[in-house]
Write a structure and sequence with these properties.
Elements (H helix, E strand, L loop, with lengths): L1 H47 L10 E8 L17 E5 L1 H4 L1 H9 L2 H4 L2 H20 L7 E5 L2 H15 L5 H14 L9 E6 L24 H20 L5 E4 L6 H14 L16 E6 L6 H12 L3 E5 H12 L8 H18 L5 E7 L2 H11 L3 E7 L2 H7 L4 H13 L5 H4 L2 E4 L4 H13 L9
Helix pairs in contact: 5-6, 6-7, 6-8, 11-12, 12-13
Length: about 450
């Protein structure tokens, strides 16, 4: 009996041991499942990369360009608002790198290690400024981010080391970054704008240019750099490095690109109320041009009286003053494209805060280059009116001296005011009476001949 009892006990012990083993395996299975779950979270976070952020920090978005845009930078077309911090190009912030590029032919003569290290030190410094933009800003926008500069670095590694092996260049890049103790920062969202299908030229990316009095690369090296850079950017695009890719084949697609960028950021719940479509609710923007004392103010007043409270009349000088104050510089010193983008931003901001307005009138425009950019961007939304008046008629109507009028004309002619007549939608002959001018204006704008009581 004792033997039987002992056997029973031994059997129970074996069951206990077996159960313990099973429990142990179950625990290991559970632990492994947890580990796998954590690994998946890590992987997902790695995929999401910089999207994991401190809520107190602004969202960092980079707008990257490849190809040579003849128009306006998309960065400059986003709304002007206290919630958005614009950090611009890397050289706008990094004086150290800017001086290095200006003082020597460093781009081509530096070693591979020095080139990559110095470029990405500047990238890290800019990202730090973006991350510390302050809790007041919800969005920090930079022009060309870490992914684009990695493409620049890889292209230059292949040029400097004289090979065309992406894998080798990437290994060299990773080694240099590791040796320098750098961690490549990533933006929360990256946007690529492709301007031409052949990607000829660059915008916003650091561009190697010959320095005055110094030797530069051969044309072959320079062309090879461009070709390789375009290939690397295309590879990054195929690898899914960019969250949004916009094709911008010509000038007329610039506004659509801007709206696509705004729609994408809004869908990501980034300032959805602020990043609404450009010129939402605006049916027509009239831009009035002409030489001094030609009657531009009179035409603007007529348009305002015709549209009543649905229209708003803005002096270009007001927009320029507002933009100059915001930029901290005289906008007249900027290029035509940059001035046009500033005007577009100012007009878009005005329309956003005055949603009851359907018509805007700008008085007066006299730079042919900037109004050409405006026309290419706004398309049919912009109606250019050129007021054509002979010099003797203008002189008779003005309270200023003939000399003063001629001085103002000289400035306008130098800026291409007379050339605006060639691209105008409507040319008004203002050599007759005011009634005749109004009738011609209304016929041009509405197709109907109307009379106005000027009493």
């Amino acid at each position: 009996m004792e033997t039987i009892e002992q056997a029973k006990l031994d059997s129970r012990d074996m069951e206990t041991i077996e159960q313990a083993k099973l429990d142990s395996r179950d625990m290991k299975t559970i632990e492994q499942a947890n580990a796998d779950s954590q690994d998946m979270e890590i992987i997902e976070q790695a995929k999401a990369g910089s999207r994991v952020r401190d809520a107190s920090m602004p969202i960092i978005v980079s707008i990257n360009n490849i190809g040579r845009p003849r128009g306006i930078s998309q960065v400059h077309l986003l709304p002007s608002d206290w919630q958005i911090c614009y950090l611009g190009d890397i050289l706008d912030l990094d004086i150290e790198l800017k001086l290095k590029l200006a003082a020597t032919n460093w781009w081509w003569e530096s070693s591979t290690d020095e080139f990559v290290t110095e470029i990405f030190k500047a990238v890290v410094r800019r990202h730090s400024r973006a991350a510390n933009a302050g809790s007041a800003h919800r969005l920090a926008v930079i022009k060309c981010g870490a992914t684009m500069f990695e493409a620049v670095a890889l292209a230059m590694i292949m040029v400097k080391d004289k090979h065309q092996d992406f894998t080798v260049a990437k290994a060299t890049f990773d080694t240099i970054i590791s040796k320098a103790g750098l961690t490549i920062p990533q933006e929360h969202y990256t946007i690529l704008v492709k301007h031409y299908s052949d990607f000829s030229g660059l915008d916003g990316v650091l561009e190697p240019t010959p320095q005055h009095g110094q030797s530069s690369s051969t044309d072959a090296d320079h062309d090879y750099y461009r070709i390789v850079l375009n290939q690397v950017v295309s590879m990054h695009e195929e690898m899914g490095e960019y969250d949004l890719v916009c094709d911008e084949p010509d000038w007329d697609s610039q506004r659509q690109t801007q709206d696509d960028i705004r729609e994408y950021l809004s869908s990501a719940n980034i300032l959805p109320n602020l990043l609404r479509p450009t010129f939402e609710g605006i049916k027509t923007i009239y831009a009035i041009a002409g030489l001094s004392e030609s009657g531009k103010t009179t035409v603007a007043d007529m348009i305002q009286r015709a549209y009543g409270t649905d229209g708003a009349r803005l002096k270009k000088s007001y927009l320029l003053r507002e933009v100059s104050n915001r930029l901290g510089c005289n906008i007249d010193s900027l290029s035509g494209a940059r001035q046009a983008s500033a005007l577009l931003q100012g007009l878009d901001d005005f329309s956003r805060y005055h949603r009851f307005i359907s018509t805007l009138t700008i008085e007066s425009v006299h730079r042919h280059d900037s109004i050409s950019f405006l026309k290419s961007y706004l398309g049919s939304l912009l109606h250019i009116i050129y007021v054509d008046t002979r010099a003797e008629v203008r002189w008779m109507r003005t309270a200023r001296s003939q000399r003063r009028m001629e001085q103002k004309d000289a400035v306008k002619k130098e800026r291409g005011t007379e050339c605006i007549k060639e691209i105008a939608n409507t040319v008004l002959d203002n050599n007759g009476s005011e009634e005749m001018l109004y009738a011609a204006l209304m016929k041009a704008l509405t197709g109907r001949e109307l009379n106005l009581d000027f009493a």
